[in-house]
Amino acid sequence: MRERQTLEDGIGAVKSLTQALDDNLELIAMGEEEGDDSIVTEAEDALRSMRGEVKARQVETLLSGEADTNDTYLEIHAGAGGTESQDWASMLLRMYTRWAERRRFKVEILEVHDGEEAGIKSATVLIKGHNAYGWLKTESGVHRLVRISPYDSNARRHTSFASVWVYPVIDDSIVIEIPESDVRIDTYRSSGSGGQHVNTTDSAVRITHIPTGIAVACQAERSQHKNRAKAWEMLRSRLYEEELKKREAAANATESSKSDIGWGHQIRSYVLQPYQLVKDLRTGVESTSPSDVLDGDLDEFMEASLSHRISGSEGAAIADID
Questions:
Q1: Confidence at residue 155, expressed as pLDDT on a 0 to 100 scale
Q2: Domain Prokaryotic-type class I peptide chain release factors: where (predicted)?
Q3: Domain check: are 30 and 146 in the same one?
Q4: Per-residue model confidence as pLDDT tens digits over 98-112
Q5: Whole-number Å distance between alpha carbons of 38 and 171
């Protein structure tokens, strides 16, 4: 049903755009024949206004990967640097949450480890929405922040790093078999708010896949059983995403860029001081309004990354749009 709805939406959009194009071209021809400049101007304005929708639809065609239409998990981890990096990690969590809300996606917090003084050490969220993984998959990597530290009494400029990791939710049509002998399961007490239950029961679950070293954790539910089931689901998704990475040559660069959370490995820089600039180091896309970007205005960066990731005419088509 989901595939059918996707196809119906795509076909309907093409038919609608084609009809609008034909109608406006006819209006222009009619206006020129009758010498009515107002009709010509109105039709030309309508054609110009179609550019945004055409571009959006062309970007959607890039979201044709095996799992692009799926929901997605998003992990954020603070790098070295203590409070600075942990605060930066919390800013990234807010940024992606705001981006998802703009698209009317649903966001579920699965796990958060708070920092000692401020911010977070790590967080895992589930983002539900059509093409959620397709849009977010190019966000995996190291993100760098440069700013005057609010935690430095001398008001010095600091550089902080945090990593983002994105992997798709897999559905029942994809079977991932994991022998229990290949995993280690740990239980612990949940952190954060939640009342007495959080403080007295080991409801949080962490599963480590020993052959790959991949670890996932969930503390969203009060029930250890539910957290264990969700953690298994997350682990299967991570292993599936690893297989997708192996089959995508472009993803090799993403993997290497995430090897260290530090200098030389970042995919995007957010500079708040001494000037205002956000720059994607893979595509060269820039924004001089970091406040808007940190408030979830990420579509331009994501579209450019998708175009950059797809080689050939599809990527070139996006780049050619005025």
A1: 76
A2: 189-205
A3: no
A4: 999 999 999 999 989
A5: 53
